Amino acid sequence: MASPEPTPTTTFLRDLHIRFIENLDKQKDSLEYWMSEHLRLNGVYWGLTALALMGRSEVLDREDVIKYVLSCYHDVGGFGGHPGHDPHLLYTLSGIQILATYDALDRIDRAQVAKFVSSLQKKDSGAFAGDEWGEVDTRFSYCAVACLSLLGALDQIDLDRAVAFVAQCRNFDGAYGSEPGAESHAGQVFCCVGMLAIANRLDLIDQDMLGTWLADRQLKNGGLNGRPQKLEDDPETGGIADRAGDVPDVFHTLFGITGLSLLNYENLDPVDPVYCMPLSVTRRLGVARPPLSP
Fold first, then answer.
1. Is the pLDDT of residue 43 over 80?
2. Which of 7, 57, 66, 79 lies most in the core, judged by the most C-beta atoms within 10 Å?
3. From residue 32, how far is each of 21, 111, 246 by CA, in Å?
4. Are 178 and 139 in contact (CB under 8 A)?
């Protein structure tokens, strides 16, 4: 017999979301747990940030989390996705975000992390590779600039050249791709706009064109897709799965909750949309941007 369709709800099930995140590390007998090992550090960041926005960061043991984050650290200054995995900018940013949230950046060699991040900038283009193998992507530009900003070390890179690379990734529709000429995607838009915001270069964005492109992502059911002709996806809306009826995961749980936070829904703590961290944390670090004028 087929499983019944889930009943739609317009109620924010806070306690269930908290329990869902709390139980994620108790599923070590599942295939999915081990198949996602390479994303474990990202998963801790997603879960911790979601809990913090719900006012329940204490659900995770602070010292246990910090100990795990430090176990992912490499002497070169980068973090891997799990102990024994190679360092990469995607995981390094998550590691720094977690430590910053816990006010524990003093537990690492900040100068060494900044050195690792800055070493990945391409001297010719200003782009960033994610790791030693050299793949370039605007996601990595965002990770590098956000990480260095949180560390107070933006002076370690050629920021003007990094900005120029991202500007080259803007398409005819006003949105951004992973590299010059690549398809526009909402995920890349987040990274590029976030990077430009940190660099104080939002003047390079065509706000009307980009605003129209983003507004066009909304479908008739209220959801938003990441690019034209695709189904809705939760990182651009809310909930704990990518769309109704799908299996929930911690990534979509975080971005559903951050979307609701931006909409001032259900007394969630404010999120800083540039860093995707609690606004209280970025204010403490002195990196929060003032609100934009309407």
1. yes
2. 79
3. 15, 36, 15
4. yes
CA distances from 289 to 128, 150, 198, 199, 285 (A): 24, 13, 8, 11, 11
3-state secondary structure of 261: helix
Q: What is the pLDDT of residue 115?
A: 99
Please check the confidence at residue 265 and state whether its pLDDT lies above 90: no
C-alpha dihedral, 181 to 182 to 187 to 190, nearest 10°: -10
Of all helices (H) and strands (E), which one includes residue 277?
strand 277-278
Q: Return the closest-CA partner of residue 258 out of 268, 246, 245.
A: 268
pTM value?
Answer: 0.89
Reduced to 3 states, what is the DSSP secondary structure of residue 272? strand
Q: Tell me which residue of 213, 117, 131, 218 sits closest to 162, measured CA to CA.
A: 117
Instruction: Name all contacts of 251-254 with Cβ < 8 Å and 24+ positions apart.
Output: 251/42, 251/43, 251/46, 253/17, 253/20, 253/21, 253/46, 253/47, 253/50, 254/46, 254/47, 254/49, 254/50
Per residue in 114-158, pLDDT tens? 999 999 999 999 999 999 999 999 999 999 999 999 999 999 999
Q: What pLDDT does residue 239 have?
A: 37
Upper half-sphere CA count for residue 1 (Cβ side, 13 Å):
3
Tell me, what's the pLDDT at 57? 96
Q: Higher-confidence residue: 289 or 28? A: 289
Per-residue pLDDT at 6 exceeds 70: no
